[in-house]
Design a protein that fits this description.
The chain has about 475 residues and is mainly beta. The chain has helices at about 1-10, 30, 150, 195-200, 450; strands at about 45-60, 65-70, 80, 85-95, 100-105, 130-135, 140-145, 160-165, 175-180, 210, 220, 225-235, 245, 250-255, 260-265, 275-280, 290-295, 305-310, 340-350, 355-360, 375, 380-385, 395, 405, 410, 420-425, 430-435, 440-445, 455-460. The protein has 3 domains: about 1-25 and about 35-165, Immunoglobulin-like; about 175-310, Immunoglobulin-like (Sandwich), CATH 2.60.40; about 340-460, Sandwich (Immunoglobulin-like), CATH 2.60.40.420. The chain contains 5 helices and 29 strands.
Length: about 475
């Protein structure tokens, strides 16, 4: 079986299987300039060994916690690559369940997307699989299982992939904060009841212990004058964060890995499951001895402490360079008003969990294929999400970025791309995209319980 998986992985990444076509519609040429269909290979290769296995770690407030981990750590290891550099990850499954690795937000060849039954067979216990691809986009991404995700991610299987620019901005430091929450039983262990009726009737599984990098009240020690690239990643099953950086000189410079058109005020930005934010944070020279408490205020009146930034030591010279937030993000003011595909988000009774979450009345639970849901390669498309429910749904697309065009019929001009957008109760959101990578790509709610109970589908991108 191991040989078969390895042979399949090498076969599926053949260059001819993932060579994109140029956009066919002149009206979307502006979009094609925004991010590349191909990338110039820089040469070289980053090789990693990644092993998923049960272990026990000092987590949260220092207590021993039985988890599932990548390479014996939670969050998993931070993997690094540079745009145009080949990344080769030899993955081995030491879990008691089948699993895969999905590269969230990364435009990988279709065969490397980690979706069982769509891009690869599941990786069985004791077996291995080779993931290999050349990242096209610089940015902050992450990886996690795409089978029984509601359990496997909650147990600790998530890690960060940073794809660096060919010439990275000279920040003083590059820091990653992985935001998560944990539901524990009375014995202090991870609650083993997954995809419950309560979670399905609400916004998925929300835990009572909020952590940054697996710890309560994470502390970042900085020096006056430092300029820091702070990368936030929400790996929670269902919890939405709204980080408050009041008092700090902080600006959003990337959303979901892609740089913004200009620096953006972070106040009020909702970080839904799957979302990422890159912040450009400058520590004032006069801030020596101060400490800044970063809180999550998504639920009014019930703030969660996320982390502390403590300023100490001698001041350093602040790096001076233009903000990386200068991407070309087209406005798309003249796009067709009617959706290419529309999706009603709703719940109904039934299914293996007692409650099914549906897209247009359908609730597959096995990555089922919907042949009618086709997007033309290299042409503009509009997707409409109609939330007929009272719950939150962060809708995520594999293999493509999109831009929010309208909320409840009112035009929106966000100066950034996304791969995940939070659709609030009874809200209608239109997004625009030009698929540039062929293949059968998943689209689903990133509340993992909702996805597991049926809120998922496939989009076929073909010429």
């Amino acid at each position: 079986m191991r040989r078969a998986l390895a042979a399949l992985s090498l076969l599926l990444i053949a260059p001819s299987a993932c060579r994109p076509s140029a956009p066919a519609d002149p009206a979307v040429a502006e979009f094609a300039d925004a991010y590349p269909t191909e990338v110039v290979a820089r040469g070289g290769e980053r090789r990693y060994e990644l092993v998923a296995a049960p272990t026990t770690l000092p987590m949260l407030d220092g207590r021993a916690l039985a988890v599932w981990a990548y390479n014996g750590q939670v969050p998993g290891p931070i993997l690094h690559a540079t745009v145009g550099e080949r990344l080769h990850v030899r993955f081995t499954n030491r879990l008691p369940q089948d699993t895969t690795v999905h590269w969230h937000g990364v435009r990988v060849p279709h065969a490397m997307d980690g979706v069982p039954g769509v891009t690869q067979p599941p990786v069985e216990p004791g077996e291995s699989f080779d993931y290999a691809f050349v990242p096209k986009d610089a940015g902050t991404f992450w990886f996690h299982p795409h089978i029984r995700s509601a359990e496997q991610v909650e147990r600790g299987l998530f890690g960060v992939l940073i794809v660096h620019e060919a010439e990275p901005p000279p920040f003083s430091r590059d820091v990653v904060w992985v935001l998560d929450d944990w539901r524990l039983g009375r014995d202090g262990a991870i609650d083993p009841n997954f995809v419950t009726r309560h979670d399905l009737a609400h916004d998925g599984r929300w835990g009572s212990v909020v952590t940054v990098n697996g710890r309560v009240n994470e502390t970042l020690a900085v020096r006056p004058g430092e300029r820091i690239r702070l990368r936030l990643v929400n790996t929670a099953n269902g919890r939405v964060f709204r980080p408050d950086f009041s008092g700090l000189d902080a600006r959003v410079i990337a959303v979901d890995g892609m740089t913004t058109a200009r620096p953006v005020e972070p106040r009020g930005f909702e970080l839904a499951p799957g979302n990422r934010l890159d912040l450009d944070v400058t520590i004032p020279v006069e801030a020596g001895g101060r400490q800044f408490r970063i809180v999550d205020d998504f639920i009014a009146g019930r703030p969660n402490s996320l982390a502390w930034i403590r300023v100490a030591g001698d001041a350093v010279e602040t790096p001076r360079f233009a903000s990386p937030a200068r991407a070309h993000v087209p406005a798309w003011k003249d796009v067709p008003p009617e959706p290419t595909l529309a999706f009603e988000l709703q719940a109904e009774r039934g299914g293996p969990f007692g409650i099914a979450w549906t897209l247009n009345g359908e609730a597959p639970t096995d990555h089922a294929h919907h042949p009618g849901r086709r997007l033309p390669l290299g042409r503009f498309a509009r997707l409409r999400f109609v939330n007929a429910s009272f719950r939150l749904h962060p809708m995520h697309t594999h293999g493509m970025f999109f831009k929010v065009l309208a909320r409840n019929g009112a035009p929106v001009d966000e100066p950034w791309w996304r791969d995940t957008v939070l659709v609030h109760a009874k809200e209608i959101i239109d997004v625009g995209l030009v698929p540039l990578d062929p293949g059968r790509w998943m689209m689903h709610c990133h509340v993992l319980e909702h996805a597991e109970a049926g809120m998922m589908t496939t989009l076929d991108v073909a010429s």
